[in-house]
Amino acid sequence: MATPGLEGRLGSAVSAAEGPAVESAPPPRPTTPVEWLHQNLFSSWFNAVLTVISGTFVIFVLNQAVSFVFVDAQWEVVRANMKGYMVGGFPLEEVWRVWACAYLVAALAGTSVGSTRRRMRWTPGRAVVVLVAAVGTTSIVVFTTQTALVRGLAAGLAAAVAGGVAAGRLGGGSLRRPLLVAWVLSFPAVVVIVRGFDGVPPELWEGFFFNLVAAWVGIFASFPIGIALALGRRSELPAVRTVCVGFIELFRGVPLVAWLIFSKYVVDLLLPPQVELPDILKAFVAVTLFSAAYVGEIVRGGLQGVSSGQYEAARALGLSTTKMMVLVVLPQALRSTIPAMISHFISLFKDTSLFTAIEVTDLLSAARRSSSSLEFFGTDMETLLFAALLFWVIAFSMSRWSQRLEVRLGVGSR
Amino acid sequence: VLRIAGQVAFLLLLVAILREMYLNVAFQLELQGTQLSYEFLDSRAGFPIKESVFPYGPNQPLVRAFLVGATNALIVAVTGIVLATVAGVALGVGRLSSNWLVRRITQVYVEVFRNTPLLVQVVFWYVAVILAIPQIRESLSLGGLAFVSNRGMAIPALRGDEQFGTWGLFCGAGLVGAAAMWRWRTRVHERSGRPHYRTVSSLAALVVIAAAGYVVLGDAFHIEVPRVGERSYVGGLQVSPEFAGVLVALVVYTAAFIGEIVRGSILSVPSGQKDAARALGLSPGQQLRLVILPQAMRTAIPPITNQYLNLWKNTSLAFAIGYPELINISTTMINQAGHELEIFAMVVATYLVTSLVISLVMNMVNRGVALRGGA
Q1: How far apart are CA A101 and CA A103, in angstroms?
Q2: Which of A163, B69, B220, B274 has CA atoms 20 to 30 A from the CA of A82?
Q3: Neighboring chain B residues of A64 at a CB cutoff of 8 Å
Q4: Measured between alpha carbons, how far is A12 from B249 in angstroms, rounded to an integer?
Q5: What average pLDDT score do residues B295-324 get?
């Protein structure tokens, strides 16, 4: 039952094919600013309206932001409480330990970034962004610090990153394995630097340092448990599988705050009465188990990505199950999970602010406390924005790095 | 044989650990002179709760306090899910707009809110924004109908009068009429190819029948406009500052994630689909609504379900600003009545069951939009 409409459509299609070939080339790249404006902002009346509305919005927000940041805000509160934000009640004469850790991690991170990044192509837009970021960071550091010593150490930190990047560029891909080892070793190294040689007990780890360390502990300590859970979930033994699935779903289904509350109020009931653990240790255990459930799921994803040919090849070589896993399957699976692990680290890092729930003085609670003091009453906007900025800088740069790694490792394209 | 032995050994180890924990609990409880039971839930709560959908007072049993916490958390979650979805889809579409400015704004939004801890955002919206707006005496007035101040927000509310129930019947009839209209317009469209306008016409049917009922009955309902009182608002629908703070933070945060998911799934629609839609002469809006989004939804729903689950769990962050949700209420209960283990089990059960319900509903939605037949 051919309708006239169908015939008509077919007819027009035929005539179009007979006519001059219409190439659907992409619109030419704009050359002049006017053309650029036309193409990107005023291509249709709808677009023009959108541009006007959102332009007004941007101007309004920028105006408010600039007049707050440079005129109304009283940033004195940040300067006065900088030490509290960074390390809280960490004893002043031991702060060198924190700096040592910072230098270690900065150099490592710089090297990692340097060895994985492609050379950046400089465009005017990028140059402006980099310039603004550099000037902004420098002025914030100069403004918020009080002594020349701290400023010098901060500059040194930047130098450590830059030096790392340079070294990473030189080393390139050959650094991959040593870097991995160095990252793994950095965890015990940090613990030794902070705790060893009459160090500082965890009760005094406070401020932003606490947020970083808690995320650090959470990710490293949960890693082996996570791998065990992932292997257990894929095990052929139903008992093992059920227990692992139950563990993972239980910890993923209940928010981290609840587990922290659990660690504070309930865990003591489950332990023998003679065992007395400090609150902070119990909380670290809770975070580790919580994180392990997520790591388990990430690793499971990685394991599923290993093709069955790899298993068969390992079997054909006569490897035992353990050897097959350790030598063939896990290295490939873990490699592909690196970007997902970094995003997990970022969200764990953001979640460390929840330690407020069990009265740990992390960056967020230090910020809240500073603006509720009599001297700086009513500066919540300033302190919270500053805290948010610190969290954001770390999380944002890590997410950028993980995007680059993703491209580089070719995840998904293998 | 080895396998079975291994499993048995594994289970025995697990049982041993659990038994040890149980013995510890029993021992500790004996020291405290209590035992595991849920009878304490019937005892008097003894603490007030700032907001509750059903009547609650300190004299009521603890179980009721817990229910208040659970419903408060659910209300935030449901409202948040709806708003975050709308905002997230808008963001995802904006990220791919042909307008450079819109693209940039949405990108900055996503990068800013995704990379800042949610708890910082909750505290920020509540302490630095909502509590900083004017006192109630100088409430911002939106045309005299709605008010905003640091005591929260008040908007006009619908109040049922005597004939409200009868009017409900009219509304039911209106829904039936709307459904009939929908089917009729669909059939007309299928037969003749004329535009169906089914959404508009069914809505019109509903509104006409409901309005007719209102006119006939005379006093079905009235709209109550809030007034600014001395210390608080009088009348209207009142939203507490705590609720507003949590809700804004959850919506702003989750929308950033949903926006990225929507963007990814729009990009995953084969570009031939868009070309085809354009070739058929559809307007950009129609292309999006009729061709792109329905297909993008298929890949977007599983990750969006994850975000809904996250949002539900994240309602727990409201504890930081004193919104009476599950965590807030249960810690108060633990401090008042003890019985940590029992209360914690209830909290876990509530979170798990609700997560399960969300997953089930979203699975149903997913089945609804999935490709039918083959594939």
Answers
A1: 5
A2: A163
A3: none
A4: 54
A5: 87
